[in-house]
Amino acid sequence: MSATTYPLDTALNLAGAGVPALPLRHGKRPFGNCPACVKSACGDRPHMNAAGPCRCPQPCHGWAAATTDAAVLTSPAWAGAWRQAVAVAYHPGGAGLTVVDLDNADAVAWAREHLPATQTVGTTRGEHWIYRGTMRSVNGVRDGVDIKSTMSYARWLGPGAGTMSPLPDAARALAVKKPSTVRPAPQSLAVPAGSKNGECRHRTPAYLDRGIAMAEQRITEARSAVHATVYRTFLAVLSTHGRCGCLTDAHVARLFTAAQSKGETARHCTDAWTNARTALGM
User: Fold this and answer.
1) Largest Cα–Cα distance in the chain?
2) The model's pTM
3) Which residues make Cβ contacts (< 8 Å) with residue 197, sequence separation at least 6?
4) Burial state string for 131-141 with b = 16 or more CB within 10 A and e = fewer than 16
5) For the segment 260-269, what is each residue's pLDDT rounded down to a tens digit?
6) Is residue 106 within a helix (H) or strand (E), and if so which, with residue range?
C-alpha cells in the first residue's frame, strides 16, 4: 500500500487490509461533514459540537470517521472530501495497533534505547513506531513523544520497515504519567448569582465539592465515548454551579485533570468547556 497514490485508492487498500481509513485536508486535519464542524469548529471531537450531539451526515469526522467499509469511503457524502484530500489517516486502535509518534531526533534516540524494535515508518521530522495492541491515546508523554491508538488517528505514511512487535509495557507506562500541564478555561468563571444576600444559592461549599467529585468520577469511570462524557459532564457542572460565582479555576483544573487522565488533550478540555458555556449562554 503506497502513501503516494490517489488518496481514495490508498484508503480503499487500507480498508481491504482491515485498517480503518479517513481523508485528511491541509494541516493534517480531518474534514468537517457539517457546518458545525467546518474548520474544526467543533474542536474535532467526534459526534459533538457546541450545541451537543453532532448532527453530521454519518460518518462524522475525526477518528470516528475511519472505516473499513468501502461503500462508506466511496459514498457521495465523502466525494468532496476525497477530491480535496491531501493525505490519508487511519485509526490505529480500530486496527488493533498503537503508534508511538516520535517527533524529533532526540525522541527517536530515546525510543531506540527504551523500546523494543518494531515496524518503523519515517516521518518528516522523526518516526512512527507501530506495535500490535491498543491503549489510550495521550499526547506529550515525553518531549516529542505522542501515543496514538484508541480515539485517535495517525497519518498513513506507508508500511515502513521491520517486523511489528507486541505493545510493550514500557509504552503502556508512558500513559500512566500524570499530565504535567492543566490549562483552565480562558474565560472568567465568576458569574453573578443574582441572589439577594450574595451567598451561594447552593447552600454550602460542600455541595459544590460533592458535585465536582461526582463529575471527576463520571469522567474517570467512562469506558467509551470519552469525548461525549467529558462534554456532558462539563455541561452538567456549569448548569448546576456555573452561575453562582463559586466555581474556581481550582475546580476546573480538577475536571481537566480527570479528562486528561482518560486521554483528552488540554485543547480538547478547553474546547469542551467553552462549548458547554456557549450552549448555556454563559
Assistant:
1) 70
2) 0.60
3) none
4) bebbbbbbbbb
5) 888 888 777 8
6) helix 105-114
